[in-house]
DNA sequence: TTACGAGTTGGAGCGCACTCCAGGTCAAGA
DNA sequence: TCTTGACCTGGAGTGCGCTCCAACTCGTAA
């Protein structure tokens, strides 16, 4: 399999694949007589897993560390496990936050629908929706230069 | 409330608050006689909500758009709602992916524990854990210069 | 009065994760 | 043989989201 095929199958660009190789996320493949990368199909499972780690918020440093540990074989099993366990904790926390946010969004959407329908909104419901809606409070529209954001001070440096 | 107080209460740095103001995420506050920003406590709810959007993966462009719509008052309710609804869909998808990943991580952790204990791993179980473990396949360790990554080709350009 | 700490500004710098490019090599098909 | 088109390399550029900095002002407490 050449880099173009792998790109297609993995969903990454050839540039990204070469970049991952450069930084050490994926191992250096063998080359054919012309110097072109030849990949074994098993690399796809590794890329898929890396992708999963990335998509769930693992930073590049940890992915790199995990990749590095992987090359060390079975001696690194315990550390790899601990890395995954700590990522697992982050994933659990993220799920909690997302679930919470889902509720907030739902409340707000309902509130907006009511407001769109011209309903007067019950203040109790408003606070339940944790709303911040409406025109921003105490906006200073008069004292700033639009381009620079500089305030005309009485005598700056004069 | 001055910027330092707001920073403490919101968990953002004063630099970040000024940056948010500069790009338009938060409204320009009033100033005191000395030109210092004076904040109304209600801004905290807005910052909190922005933070929630950011923490759940909404990019800066959409947050900016939402902030902009907010300044337009009730005329923008429908568009704000649609923005939130589309974010909601992303959040739902993210929860699904995280939940899936949680399973993959759990499988891998169990697998690692077994391997650490010196168990021979049942191949069927291995594939269930979607494993990519072990030394990387077909690593090319011999043909590259360590510093440049350049392969000594037989007669490059000679 | 002076020293200090909190605030002001514009602008530079940074880490992440790519993405693009110039200028080249190579293999295979017309 | 010639021409594609896929691939190679090192390095520059990009967008996000801050973060840090220099150089300044202001209000207050010793």
From TrEMBL, chains A, B:
GO molecular function, one term: DNA binding
InterPro entries reported for this sequence: DNA-bd_dom_put_sf, MerR-type_HTH_dom, MerR_fam
Pfam families found in the cross-reference section: MerR
Source taxon at top rank: Bacteria
Assigned keywords, A-Z: DNA-binding
Domain (HTH merR-type) ranges: 1-66
Record bears the keyword DNA-binding: yes
Ranges for region Disordered: 128-158
UniProt-listed PANTHER family: HTH-TYPE TRANSCRIPTIONAL REGULATOR ADHR (PTHR30204:SF98), REDOX-CYCLING DRUG-SENSING TRANSCRIPTIONAL ACTIVATOR SOXR (PTHR30204)
Protein name: DNA-binding transcriptional MerR regulator
Organism from which the protein derives: Roseibium marinum
């Amino acid at each position: 399999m050449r880099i173009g095929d792998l790109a297609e199958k993995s969903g990454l660009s050839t540039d990204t694949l070469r970049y991952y190789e450069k930084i050490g996320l994926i191992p250096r493949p063998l080359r054919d007589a012309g110097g072109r990368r030849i990949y074994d199909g098993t690399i796809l499972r590794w890329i898929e897993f890396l992708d999963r780690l990335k998509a769930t918020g693992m930073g590049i440093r940890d992915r790199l560390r995990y990749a590095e540990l992987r090359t060390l074989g079975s001696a690194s099993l315990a550390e790899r496990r601990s890395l995954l366990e700590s990522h697992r904790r982050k994933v659990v926390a993220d799920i909690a936050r997302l679930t919470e946010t889902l509720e907030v969004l739902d409340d707000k959407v309902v509130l907006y629908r009511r407001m769109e329908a011209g309903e007067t909104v019950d203040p109790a419901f408003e606070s339940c929706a944790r709303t911040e809606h409406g025109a921003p409070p105490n906006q200073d529209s008069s004292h700033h230069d639009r381009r620079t954001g500089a305030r005309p001070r009485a005598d700056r440096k004069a």
